[in-house]
Amino acid sequence: MPVADPIADARRAMEVCNACRYCEGFCAVFPAMERRRSFTDADLTTLANLCHGCRGCFYACQYAPPHPFGINVPRTFSELRLDSYAQYAWPKPFAALFRNNGAVVALAMALGVGIVVVLAAALQNPAILLGAHPVRPGAFYAVIPYAVMFWPAAISLMFSIVAVIMAVRGFWRDAGPSQRTAGALGAAIRHAMTLQNLSGGGHGCNDRDDGFSTARRRLHHAISCGFALCFSASGVAAIFDRLGHPAPYAFWSAPVLLGTIGGFLMLIGAGGLFWLKLCGDQAPTAGRLVGPDVAMLALLAMVPLTGLLLLALRATSAMGIVLAVHLGFVLALFLMLPYSRMVHGAYRFAALLRDAHDAGTGK
Ligand code: SF4
Ligand code: SF4
Question: pTM for the whole thing?
Fold first, then answer.
């Protein structure tokens, strides 16, 4: 059953927690909570995005269900986070994409693949698209024209970056005035890179049940490092291309090595998080987040999976179709960055920065 009013539920939970304070060493949420006596809607949204969902406070809580207070901070905050993504979505009408978000992301994947495959088929001779090509410079462009490969991805990525900036800007503005604190940016970057709020205060998270583990934290690191490596691979490949050396490249070249290692890391991260989702205790999880989470993990897995498949099949007649499918998933990933659970990284970083400023000024 979804929480009827996540804001009211979060306010009640924070009022109980502020009296109890048992969990104050678990993460940044509780010290931030203790700096407040009452909670505006924006305070609660900020605290919800500061929470990394480690679930430690659920298993430690003497007021968790079946206690009549029914305190379930991770679940309440995950409901509130999902609502905040819709609340601040830019442009406004796109907030509707967070309704049935799992189905929306699945549709985006189908559309992304469909658009690139149809464009490639329309602009290319089928014999070339479905034929085998020797692995030599420019072989990918011979199958899918540069314009189809570059422009849809570039335009969608630029739009998504603007949409994420505008969304987080609204979130930051609603949180109210904040004084600048020296070192806050460094502290926020350090917390984001180390995922300190997924450490459960040092002993690990409650990934599956009341036992402690660091699996979730490591899997998040695998996805973010993998993503960064894949992005670097594309950047190096773009430089090579500008210098007159178009893809595909030899296996031991920098773009292929970066992309291969990054791709495997993303697959391990997405697969592991999916496994934790399948076998973990559902009590501290909002039921309506399962669809968006699974769809996001599927998208994060399909991009590297099709990329690695392309590497394996690039000398065969399957290369054209696999390349088109891979580009379609990349297009869907770029388009859905602001309108799926992937956006949580941007909000969490803003909440960490806000918290670092507030903690430095004693607010
Ligand atoms: S989650 Fe429970 S134990 Fe922890 S501070 Fe809140 S009320 Fe206390
Ligand atoms: S990060 Fe963990 S301990 Fe902190 S509020 Fe969220 S679930 Fe609770």
Answer: 0.92
